[in-house]
Amino acid sequence: MLLLVRVVRRSVAVLAISALAVVPGFGSAAPGDEARPAGLERFYGQQLHWQPCGIENLDKAGGECADVQVPLDYGRLDGRTMTVAISRVKAADPARRQGILLANPGGPGGEGLDSIDLLGDVLSPEVLATHDLIGMDPRGVGESGRSPRCGWPVGEMIRSAGLDPLGFVHDTVQSAGMAAGCLIHDPEQMRQFTTRNTARDIDVVRGVLGEPKIDYFGLSYGTFLGAVFTQMFPERSGRIVLDSAIDPDRYWEGLVQDWGPADERALDEWAAWAATKDDTYRLGATPQLVRATVENLVRTAARQPIVVDDFAVDDHWLPFVLHGMLMNFRLNEKLADVVRELADAAGGPPIKARAPWLSAIVSALRDGEDSTLAQIACGDVGVPRDPGWYWRNIEETRAGQPVFGAMAGNIQPCAFWAPPVEPATVVRNTVPALILNSTGDPRTPYAHAVALHQDMSGSRLVTLQDVRIHMTFRPGLSTCVNDAINTYFGTGTLPVEDTTCYADQPSQ
């Protein structure tokens, strides 16, 4: 393996140097002073031109959209500019209007323009009556300057290293090429697609809309963005709700590593459910047998990939498929359909997907490109660059994380990205906030919410107990959770103490 790592290092060095050679100002850092510097007045004072959005949900709700001009680089206010797209659905009762509520759906890279789609069915009539709902595509996302495709050979940068060293070598060289393919396109712009800059953009939006503070709902990655905003702009932070939270100290590489044990626990829980449905799915009559079916399927896919809709589901991609579906107990049946279909097809000729979820996942991996995720995550924080570091982590976790360890520890394009333009934000503040997380969330494990709660000492933590789900603010999941969020947005009152909530119905 040492020889392989040396070969990988020599191979990727050429790709990495080629990528960095096209980056102007390599290694420069933007200033971190968030007091409004001279030159920003023209951005905060701009006039917006509102127009129909052309998005069905928003148009139906009476929404309108506008572009907000912002600096590309807040350290060079006389330099290039760009626009971020925002939407607005005005408060239903203007006489009682309290302010604006901006939402972010996660990612990194999630499109946030359609705020009604994200929150319209869970916000109370009172909150909808008193708040303008603001949606926003963060810089580099959707209508806010998304870059051209990077030419990736696969749709996602997150995948398992597989079961053998050659698979890891393949992923390492491929990751270096994926980074180079992105950085060759306008690297000056791409390196400014950072969370800190998006937080600055949000404050420009706040100022343009004439509000002293901004209320905020962030989901998943949106909790990281929200926490960064509170650290950079504490005096402009209103009612902050962070659902399914990320520990900023673990973002990005640490969060991905934490998926390994969390996904293994989620797989065990799903296996216990599937064992009770053995007459239907034939995956095993005990949790142990169901898990054995999954582990054997990964080994089978390593020997002969399962070709579905002209895409090879192998030991690199099968764990990713499972990872995507284990984050919500409401997908139990769909996941069982997918595993059953893949097990039936293993060792056989190519197939056409029957299960809609399998078809959608395969289509995204085959034809899509989630490079926006890399552009933001890799631009935010540096990660180890030595391939040997990743291989050692993979080998150390194989026994305890047989399905997901090689995915959680695998190398990504971030290892070959240009260094971030400024240091990562350390979140330590007393800004009031409501933090929510399920104890069974495998995507943002519960320990992350506990850590963020400690770092934001003015916050309250609402725990959704014993539910395997990502995003707690949902219709029909927990009245207790929904009431806590709506009460805070409606009245500004946090719970007196940390609270434990439960699902309205059993989660199995």
From TrEMBL:
Keyword Signal (UniProt): yes
Record organism: Nocardia tenerifensis
Chain ranges of the AB hydrolase-1 domain: 101-291
MF term (GO), any: hydrolase activity
Residues of the Peptidase S33 tripeptidyl aminopeptidase-like C-terminal domain: 402-501
InterPro entries hit by this protein: AB_hydrolase_1, AB_hydrolase_fold, Pept_S33_TAP-like_C, Serine_prot/Carboxylest_S33
Domain of life (superkingdom): Bacteria
Keywords recorded for this protein, A-Z: Hydrolase, Signal
Signal peptide: 1-29
Family to which the UniProt record says this protein belongs: Belongs to the peptidase S33 family.
Taxonomic path: Bacteria, Bacillati, Actinomycetota, Actinomycetes, Mycobacteriales
Protein name: Alpha/beta hydrolase family protein
